[in-house]
């Protein structure tokens, strides 16, 4: 209410509250206000509000090392010269060769998606305690706001940890210091497809027809049909349970000092 543009205040506010160990109750308070204006459970924490921006900034600051240990080894693999270019329609190829290229593309993409997905769902022990505490609050606020929707407690967490954290880091690794510079066009295309896949797999619930139809590329719809197995949904559910729990974890969350002040 004080700031004309409240988003200008988000980063210094988050740093200040982090320093005084007051971020979790603040995020819970603004998230509760945010939820009062949320009418549909499937749109929970999808907009750019004060609550979502605060959590975004918190994850960038606190989760930097977590991202590095989870994603950097896989991200470093992406972009080495391969015979298959991730283009939607390579020009001038005969149809038979296109089919071969498409199969190779899907095999290559499947390798990366499997690896990134596996690293993420097995990484809950490394998730910083502060992130877990915030996710715990968001999960219970969401369940309280929509008591008749059993899935909302999971989508409240996945909308941050998958959509706003891991998927964004995959598509823009240079902004999260996972790569030294902006990737070239081919690598960027590959990372975009991997990011789309992680977003879709991280969305709580099955891969419905409506989700599959959201892809512009026909091969992506076919590609995702291979993920319509219960084991993927169960892996996501277990991971979300773990990172939104207040149970004590090993002290492996933040092994580097958090930079709160600059200039």
Automatic annotation (TrEMBL):
Note the superkingdom of the native organism: Eukaryota
Chain spans, region Disordered: 241-263
A Pfam family cross-referenced in the UniProt record is RasGAP
> So where does this one cross the membrane?
none
| Keywords (A to Z) from UniProt | GTPase activation
UniProt GO molecular function: GTPase activator activity
Protein name (record): RASA2 protein
Q: Which organism is it from?
A: Sapayoa aenigma
| Presence of the UniProt keyword Acetylation in the record | no
Q: Any idea where the Ras-GAP domain is?
A: 5-203
